[in-house]
Design goal:
By secondary structure, the protein is of the alpha+beta class. 38% of the residues lie in helices and 21% in strands. It has two domains: 5-219, Restriction Endonuclease, CATH 3.40.91; 224-367, Alpha-Beta Plaits, CATH 3.30.70. The strands form three sheets. An eight-stranded mixed β-sheet has the order 7-6-1-4-5-8-10-9. Strands 11-12-13-14 form a four-stranded mixed β-sheet, sandwiched between helices. The chain has a two-stranded antiparallel ribbon with strand order 2-3.
Length: 389
């Protein structure tokens, strides 16, 4: 089935926001018994416990139906039916392999473990589409619950403002809560109000017209939390990789972070780069995020000591995981290229296992504590502030 212009646009947006590793737009698969080709969904985003199912509809230029009729038939009937079919496939089939935007095939059936999948319809109507229809926020299904409705322009701006997968999910949850607070009022307001309200507060128990000003004053310093250059080159730079998707759990944990958390992540990466050639002993930079139960440790290493990277990476990663009592921990060695000090090598390690008491590690940390003290204070609203101080 040929991909439409709207489907291509949404695929590009989702690839940038959710990363190519977790975005799927080539979603046809074959029924096991009949070998019949079935369509899973127009677009899928699957990132650990985050699972978004998209149906994307575009108004045919020569359609004889009225705009309202098109909306009722294509959006409220056909697209809804297709989302129901996708959820049925998930619960029925033993495996469904589809290809992500990196060209890797993954078994998306494992996404059925996600307890709160988001059902989303994005549509592109003609310019004279009635505002009353555009303001409809949801289709309410007695079988599968709320299905988000987005004009494609509104969806684009939401992703432009919110930037990270964690924040998009947070906004969708907020959108549902505000709609359920007052369905009638919600369907009278434009999407811009919902977004402006979200930027002000997550409290979904009131409406305040002045919040709309947030869209004019909201001007985040995206550079503080943009780590796309690290993600884009990840599969090229990661060491000790045994198969093409082995690095996914690492960037998955990075992709779960919100803007304030990403800012702290990037700050420590840059400090490690800056101090990697220091003649003094530089203690690792580290952080732990309770929301994902994952620690990160960043270890600057002088290029003359490159041969010790495996030992340093393992010891510091295990020590940080143990010290924070984290289930997961990601360690990274940052070292300048010995042949060209303008470039850097990144050596990564991911550990995922339950924390258990260990006498040897306890003694090592007591006798020679290898970390600096860290202090962080989270602000009330990261969308109006920089997040951590």
């Amino acid at each position: 089935m040929a991909i439409t212009n709207s489907e291509n646009i949404i695929s590009q947006i989702n690839s940038n926001i959710f990363f190519k590793e977790f975005t799927f737009s080539k979603n046809d698969f074959k029924e096991l018994n009949t070998n019949q080709k079935l369509e899973f969904a127009d677009n899928v985003v699957w990132l650990d416990t985050l699972f978004f199912i998209y149906q994307i509809k575009e108004r045919e230029p020569n359609s004889k139906n009225s705009d309202v009729k098109w909306f009722e038939n294509k959006i409220l009937k056909k697209a809804v039916k297709q989302i129901k079919s996708t959820l049925k496939y998930i619960s029925t089939y033993p495996e469904i392999f589809i290809e992500n935007e990196k060209g890797h095939k993954l078994d998306v059936i494992k996404a059925k473990e996600c307890i709160n999948p988001k059902k989303i319809i994005v549509y592109l109507p003609p310019d004279n589409f009635p505002e009353s229809k555009r303001h409809l926020k949801f289709y309410e299904s007695s079988e599968i619950g709320l299905i988000h409705l987005f004009h494609s322009e509104d969806y684009y701006w939401i992703c432009k403002y919110l930037i990270t997968p964690a924040e998009i999910e947070e906004y969708l949850n907020f959108r549902e809560h505000l709609f359920l607070f007052d369905k009638t009022k919600s369907n009278e307001l434009p999407e811009q109000y919902f977004l402006a309200h979200f930027l002000e507060t997550l409290n979904a128990d009131h409406f305040e017209p002045s919040y709309i000003n947030n869209l004019q004053t909201h001007n985040p310093d995206i550079g503080k939390f943009d780590v796309s250059y690290i993600i884009d080159n990840f599969s090229k730079n990661i060491k000790l990789i045994n198969h093409q998707t082995e690095y996914y759990p690492i960037i998955q944990e990075i992709a779960k972070l919100n803007r304030s958390e990403l800012s702290e992540f990037k700050k420590r990466i840059l400090l490690s780069i800056e101090n990697s050639e220091s003649e003094e002993i530089i203690l690792p930079y580290r952080i732990y995020f309770p929301a994902t139960d994952c620690g990160f440790i960043f270890i600057p290493l002088h290029s003359k000591n490159t041969q010790y990277w495996k030992t340093a990476l393992y010891n510091f990663t295990i020590a940080h995981k143990y010290d924070t009592k984290a289930t997961k921990c990601i360690g990274v060695i940052v070292v300048r290229d010995q042949k060209d000090l303008e470039y850097f090598e990144f050596y990564w390690q991911f550990v995922d296992e339950e924390w258990v008491y260990d006498d040897a590690i306890e003694k090592a940390l007591t006798d020679n504590y290898p970390f600096r003290k860290t202090k962080m204070k989270k602000v009330d609203n990261r969308y109006k502030n920089d997040g951590y101080h």
